[in-house]
Design a protein that fits this description.
The protein is mainly alpha-helical. It has 17 helices and 2 strands. Strands 1-2 form a two-stranded antiparallel ribbon. Helix 5 packs parallel to helix 8 (163-193) and helix 6 packs across helix 7. The protein starts with 17 loop residues before the first helix and ends with a helix.
């Protein structure tokens, strides 16, 4: 094992200045695209302002896993800037997903700021325009998300790798986007069906989050490095359980998280009625009285803090919280064991190990 690339107290997301370098690509891309938008009309400047604000924050998880997937498979740092640019393009795909997800969920905030559709509804009100502010906000947010999806393609496929490399990468990227949209639809379906089994909730987790957040970015990195199948398989063995653990942690934070850390009001997932593994487990283990409380409060947009506390108590008392924590620990252990292989570069193994702990403990 080479000398450690990790510095105590520094996030593994900042190894090799990853977050700063991703931000540089994001800023350069937005600046370039803003020139095109300005040439169309000055009225498009709110779109640039909205995406600039959204992309000033974030953990940069997907670029991190794509970049370290490439490093782990390539074993060197040649074409480093090209790989970083391709990885950074995933931030625009993530922006698209967040903007559209907030529209579907009716979320008010994102990263401590008004969600895009709320932001544009506010612009409508400020100018006292005709029609519905909410309809305008929704329409503008959908278009902004679509624009980010287009920019993601531009950044990734202009990164500078050889055409054959990009052809391999595009096959993975196409699957990744389809799986994400499929997972989003399954999530919507769970909400209107009123939720179901833990198994169904885990299927949503796998396709909406686990594969999209970790496994597929790793595969993208592997494709950029022309990695052999055994490396891709090792990345799946690591990425899928870790991705599920990451989302389960996110579900817990959506109910029990500190708003100053999550950027969302306390219990916001409960107001949105998200049918998570946490909720499915609670319903499977609840008494009739507890189940009635869940059904009464879950999905109430006006849910008070007292209602939030009542649902938190049910989730805790049924053992659903402890069980979900146990699932996280088991999945994390499975992911870490998958990295015990000589076919992945040791430096990447070290960083991927640190990322696994950070993603599930939210220490980043």
């Amino acid at each position: 094992m080479p000398d450690s690339t990790l510095t105590p107290g520094v996030s593994p997301l900042d190894v090799d200045d990853l977050r700063a370098r991703v931000q540089q690509v994001v800023d350069e891309t937005v600046a370039t695209q803003s020139l095109l938008l300005e040439s169309v009309s000055a009225d498009l400047s709110p779109l640039v302002d909205a995406i600039s604000a959204l992309l000033k924050g974030g953990k940069r998880l997907r670029p991190a896993f794509a970049y370290w997937g490439w490093r782990g498979a390539s074993g060197d740092t040649s074409h480093d800037d090209l790989a970083m640019r391709a990885a950074a393009g995933l931030e625009f795909l993530q922006a698209c997903a967040l903007i559209h997800d907030d529209v579907m969920d009716g979320s008010d905030t994102r990263r401590g700021l008004p969600a895009a559709h709320r932001r544009f509804a506010g612009v409508h009100r400020d100018h006292e325009w005709h029609g519905s502010p909410e309809a305008f906000g929704t329409g503008a947010a959908i278009l902004l998300g679509d624009m980010c999806l287009s920019w993601a393609d531009e950044v990734i496929f202009s990164c500078g790798f050889a055409p054959a490399t990009m052809q391999r990468t595009k096959a993975i990227y196409d699957e990744m986007r389809t799986e994400l949209m499929a997972g989003q639809y399954l999530d919507l379906l769970e909400q209107v069906r009123g939720g179901g089994s833990v198994e169904r909730a885990l299927r949503v987790v796998r396709y909406k989050s686990a594969k999209y957040t970790i496994e597929r970015p790793l595969h993208l990195g592997a494709a950029l490095a022309d990695a052999p199948p055994e490396v891709v398989d090792a990345y799946s063995a690591y990425g899928l359980p870790l991705g599920e653990a990451f989302q389960l942690r996110d579900d817990i934070l959506g109910v029990f998280g500190d708003p100053s850390e999550t950027g969302k009001p306390a219990g916001d997932d409960l107001r949105e009625g998200k049918r998570t593994v946490l909720i499915a487990t609670s319903l499977e283990r609840s008494t009739a009285t507890q189940a009635a409380a869940i059904r009464h409060h879950l999905g109430d947009p006006a849910l008070s803090l007292d209602g939030v506390e009542e649902l938190r108590s049910v989730i805790t008392d049924t053992g659903a919280l402890a069980h979900t924590e146990q699932l996280i620990d088991q999945s994390l252990d499975q992911a870490i064991r998958a990295l015990d292989t000589p076919i992945i570069d040791p430096t990447a193994v070290e960083v991927l190990t640190a990322l696994a702990y950070a993603a599930t403990r939210r220490s980043m």
